[in-house]
Amino acid sequence: MVNPHTNCCISMYYVYILKSKKDGMLYIGSTNNLERRLSEHNAGLIFSTKHRIPFEIIYYEAYKSEKEARKREHNLKLRSRAFAQLKKRIQESILL
Predict the structure, then answer these.
(1) Is the confidence at residue 96, as pLDDT, over 90?
(2) Is 39 helix (H, G, I), strand (E, B) or coil?
(3) What is the pLDDT of residue 43?
(4) Residue-wise pLDDT tens digits, 72-84
(5) Which residue has the higher pLDDT, 66 or 95?
(6) Which of 34, 44, 58, 82 could tie 50 with a disulfide, CB 3.0–4.6 Å?
(7) What is the sign of the dihedral through the CA atoms of 9, 12, 17 and 20?
(8) Once rounded to an integer, what is the mean pLDDT over residues 29-48?
(9) Quick one: how far is CA 75 from the chain centroid?
(10) What's the pLDDT tens digit per position in 16-35?
């Protein structure tokens, strides 16, 4: 991403939720490049998701800190209450 005021690159880190178009299951991940990572998932390059392709991104959060993004990803993966609350917030996006 480029800062329009300085023409300098801004590094962002993303926590994302993918939805499998094959079976409707959700997958949580993190990356510094959403487009590339979605392409990797859809090309079958990611072991944990290769049998559930194709995917679409249904939600993401952006962080300036990689550490914060990883912490959020970890929280969503290991704390079912946090993920349940998020799914409730984005339930229309999940159903589309």
Answers:
(1) no
(2) helix
(3) 97
(4) 999 999 998 999 9
(5) 66
(6) 44
(7) positive
(8) 97
(9) 13
(10) 999 999 999 999 999 999 99
Sheet holding 55-63, edge to edge: 26-31, 13-20, 55-63
Looking at CATH, the fold of the domain delimited by 2-95 is given as GIY-YIG endonuclease (3.40.1440)
Q: What local confidence, expressed as pLDDT, does residue 44 receive? A: 96
Domain boundaries along the sequence of the chain = 2-95
User: SS3 of 27, please?
Assistant: strand
Q: Rounded to whole angstroms, how far apart are CA atoms 69 and 83?
A: 15
For the range 17-21, what are the long-range contacts, defined as Cβ-Cβ under 8 Å and sequence gap of 24 or more?
A: 17/57, 17/58, 17/59, 17/60, 17/86, 17/90, 18/49, 18/55, 18/56, 18/57, 18/58, 19/55, 19/56, 19/58, 19/94, 20/49, 20/52, 20/53, 20/54, 20/55, 21/53, 21/54, 21/55, 21/56
